[in-house]
Amino acid sequence: MFQHGETVQSKAWEPELGHGRHHRARLGFILMSTDLAAEADFFAMAPAGVAVHITRLKTDDYTTNETLARHIDHMADAAARLQPDTKPQVISYSCTSGSIVIGEERIMAEIKKGAPWAKPMCLVTGVVDALRELGAKNIVVGTPYLDEINTAEAEFLIAKGFNLLDIQGLNLTTGIEFGCVTPAYWKSFAQAIDRPDADALFLSCGGIRALEVVAEIEDLIGKPVITSNQAQFWSCLRRAGITDQLTGFGRIFSLPGAAISPA
């Protein structure tokens, strides 16, 4: 029995050290401070043995091209805060519209500056990866964004080689509004904007609750549906060498990511 004034002297123990809870891969994500959806989506999709590390980027809760452009100012610092001791294999900037407005190369350079040990990524890179993996050429896009952002997204997708049959936005202004649109609404909105000549439908924005109904939408419209968080997470997994075929999150997870180089 320990008595007041004594000094603790432990026995000589030899603890068994493993590779940790997340021995397969570690993924890092830079989220907006206003994002209400992505964190839950990532943890829902994470396979056993895969870590999800998250940091938040201070964000104006008024989403325009101008406010999105300012995200780059703190990108390197945000990347540096993502578990530097365990060193995630992949770190992704989790904003669709911000990725487009700022540009993939510039974002990845800043992430690499803050976390030189990680493979840099951004959300739209994952979207393009997923659409190409599906062989989708003709696409329809639905977003929560203002039309100034929709216009920038349309130009981006055309430049990537896709035929944009239509893009429709809800013209909401804040990230909080984005996250409060119900999954049921995204399901009905997707059916309303789908076209028979579309190879795939893309619901754009990391802050919306589309992942929760993506499998239902695919069943209803009979074609692949891409959501921002789903595509980003799938691409990050494949880049980290994780090829698990997950169910319940869309057809893309049945595909190996053959064109994606592991991190």
Q: What do these coordinates show?
A:
The protein starts with 24 loop residues before the first strand and ends in a 24-residue tail after the last helix. Helix content is 38%, strand content 17%. It is built from 11 helices and 8 strands. It has helices at residues 38-45, 65-69, 75-80, 96-102, 104-114, 123-134, 147-159, 175-180, 183-193, 214-221, 228-239; strands spanning 25-32, 50-57, 90-93, 119-122, 138-143, 163-169, 200-203, 225-227. A 4-stranded parallel sheet has the order 2-1-3-4. A 4-stranded parallel sheet has the order 6-5-7-8, sandwiched between helices. The mean pLDDT is 95. It folds into 2 domains: 25-123, Rossmann fold (3-Layer(aba) Sandwich); 126-230, 3-Layer(aba) Sandwich (Rossmann fold), CATH 3.40.50.1860. Helix 6 crosses helix 11 (228-239). With 263 residues, it is of the alpha/beta class. Helix 10 links the parallel strand 7 and strand 8.
The count of β-strands is: 8
Which CATH C-level class of the largest domain is it? Alpha Beta
Continuous helix count: 11
**Series of secondary-structure elements, N-terminal to C-terminal:** EHEHHEHHEHEHEHHEHEH
Strand order of the largest sheet: 2-1-3-4
What is the topology?
Layout: E1 25-32, H1 38-45, E2 50-57, H2 65-69, H3 75-80, E3 90-93, H4 96-102, H5 104-114, E4 119-122, H6 123-134, E5 138-143, H7 147-159, E6 163-169, H8 175-180, H9 183-193, E7 200-203, H10 214-221, E8 225-227, H11 228-239
Parallel strand pairs: 1-2, 1-3, 3-4, 5-6, 5-7, 7-8
Helix pairs in contact: 6-11
